[in-house]
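Query protein
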Amino acid sequence: MRSLIWFRNDLRVTDNATLNAAVKASTAVIPVYILDPEQWSENRWGHAKTGPFRAQFLLESLADLKADLEDMGGTLLIRRGAPAEVLKALAEEFDAKTVFATAEHTREEVDRQEQVSEVLDLRLEEQLTMYHPDDLPFELHQLPDVFTRFRGKMEKRSEVRDPLTEPEGLTLPEGLKGDALPSLDDLGVEAKVADARGVLPFKGGAAAAWERLDHYFWDTKKLRVYKKTRNGLLGGDYSSKFSPWLALGCISPREIHAQVRAFEKEIEKNEDTYWLIFELIWRDYFRYVAMRYGNRIFHKRGIKEEAPKWRTDRRVFEAWCEGRTKCDFVNANMRELAATGFMSNRGRQNVASYLVHDLGVDWRLGASWFEHLLLDHDPASNYGNWIYVAGVGNDPRPSRKFNTTGQVERYDADGKYRRHWSHATLELDL
């Protein structure tokens, strides 16, 4: 049997359940990545869903995946169009009977899966979380509404599976050749060079992901102090910075988990090493929230019954986007995001809280802006964290309002970060 493997946010050959399943079940496998026009369109707020930084990171990741597949005897087709139409045409061309893909659980991705399943045999594999969905110690509808309870149940009653080995090789239909990678121009995206003041020169692909992990774990051993430094603002090593590669699946959370355990065995086990696993559990939690609540994570009221009366004042919102508010700490973070496609976790919490609770702007505009710019955007993490901060998600506290003055005193008392991202511009008194 010939099969198609439809890559999406699983751009790796190691620990890839979908790739393994396709190889095991098929006499020949045709790997394909589809550039869906929907992902390059503007949303209801007027923002392109995929901005220049993530677009470049994606192309780099595809180039790396193609090279890895070629090393296995395969290749990568890169096509444009609606996934159901593209895959149906390929199935007819190569007499493929089945499409293998990694299961997604947010609205647009699920819609695409359903459209494909209407015209082809679609087999989905679960592999985007650290804890496999089959290993949940409760039914999905019983997912705890508070993260601490979720973490407690998972740590006590579930185990993280070992990463899968890479398939030994791929067999292609005779004569099949891969497609050339498109450019940003081909995609209609204007290239933007990341500001050299950014924390890292991020590059897409599994090779770069493992290079980063080797640097952070084994070369510098910064993992030993992760919890102590993770709220930093400047420099490449205050935190792991794995999130962009996790978002596109260039590396899996199980692979990172296995490396943490190896580090604990060979170097040191302490609260810092545990805290990185804690963050992977946090990431898992929002994926399970998305699975349980579906489209509600995109709605104004989130998963709550009522929502505050937020405004959609574009003047106020655009000042926030451009770093022109009366809070210089918020401004510095927003300028970093605009210039690099990245922002620290500490910064994200503060700017989100400021937009919603200080400026009174609808959180969905902020989430949309993050989706446009962030290198590490994925729907579950982005929207899940936004509804959390906005008070319409899983936060047990009634308000997640950050005191930016107190945050500055704690994390940027010397003003180094704010000076790093300052520039001469008039600030609006908002």
User: Anything to note?
Assistant: The chain has three domains: 2-127, 206-298, 314-420.
